[in-house]
Amino acid sequence: MCRSIKTLRPPQLAEEATEDEIRAAALQYVRKVSGFRAPAAHNREVFERAVDAVAKATAELLGGLEVRGQGAAGGN
């Protein structure tokens, strides 16, 4: 779907994803889903809330994942 969003978990990312990396991925997702690169002024607040919500969900997901094999591409 969003080819510019990179995988943010080991082993794809050597270290834990930073807040900036998580927010960048969330922004790309919201841009793709909404169809807007930058929202109009009247949509800015809802756009930013969506980015915040996606970033929070992404951080929770990454924090809860258990990666068992460094060579596992499918999250086994």
Describe the protein's architecture and organization.
By secondary structure, the chain is an all-alpha fold. The chain has a domain at about 20-60. Helix content is about 50%, strand content about 0%. The chain contains two helices and no strands. It has helices at about 20-35, 45-65. Helix 1 crosses helix 2 (about 45-65). The model has no long low-confidence stretch (mean pLDDT about 85).
Keywords:
DUF2277; 0% strand; single chain; elongated; mainly alpha; 76 residues; 2 helices; DUF2277 domain-containing protein
Approximately how much beta-strand content do the residues carry?
under 5%
SS-derived structural category: mainly alpha
What radius of gyration results from the CA coordinates? 14 Å
Biggest sheet layout = none
Percent helix: 40-55%
Rounded to the nearest angstrom, the distance between the terminal CA atoms is 22 Å
Strand and helix order: HH
What does the oligomeric state look like here?
Answer: single chain
Mean pLDDT: 85
Overall 3D shape: elongated
Count up the helices. Answer: 2
Total strands: the figure is: 0
Low-confidence stretches: none
Layout: helices, strands, pairs:
Layout: H1 19-34, H2 44-64
Q: Can you give me a brief rundown of this structure?
A:
This protein has 76 residues and is mainly α. The protein has helices at residues 19-34, 44-64. The chain starts with 18 loop residues before the first helix and ends in a 12-residue tail after the last helix.
